């Protein structure tokens, strides 16, 4: 897999990815979940990746020239699988959701612990 482009907009990345898929280039988007949770992750970019290295040059040409003809297109079955994956949030959707849920739980537990410690400390000082 090779990074073709990165964007500061999910919509732009999805548009390019769909454009590549429509022309038979296996592509996907990464960083969608991290971007959507950028307050926690710090991520400000979304990447468009060409899955098969042998299609990378075709992808670069398509990006520059909409009339370029892809020399080695992926099968219809693979094309549908990549489109389903893209519709479900890209390659990092499931992993990203698990990571951000774990971060949320850790942050919540730490918050409860700190607030509890502050309240306990105030009670001790008052008595």
From TrEMBL:
This is DUF2007 domain-containing protein. Keywords: Membrane, Transmembrane, Transmembrane helix. It comes from the Bacteria. The chain crosses the membrane at residues 99-125. It comes from Microbulbifer agarilyticus.
């Amino acid at each position: 897999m090779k990074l073709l482009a990165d964007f500061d907009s999910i919509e732009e990345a999805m548009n390019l990815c769909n454009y590549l898929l429509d022309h038979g280039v296996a592509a996907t988007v990464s960083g969608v979940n991290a971007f959507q949770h950028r307050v926690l992750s710090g991520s400000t970019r979304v990447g468009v990746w060409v899955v098969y290295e042998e299609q990378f040059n075709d992808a670069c040409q398509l990006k520059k020239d909409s009339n370029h003809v892809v020399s080695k297109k992926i099968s219809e079955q693979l094309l549908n699988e990549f489109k389903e994956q893209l519709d479900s949030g890209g390659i990092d959707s499931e992993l990203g959701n698990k990571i951000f849920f774990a971060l949320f739980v850790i942050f919540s537990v730490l918050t409860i612990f700190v607030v509890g410690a502050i309240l306990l400390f105030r009670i001790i000082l008052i008595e």
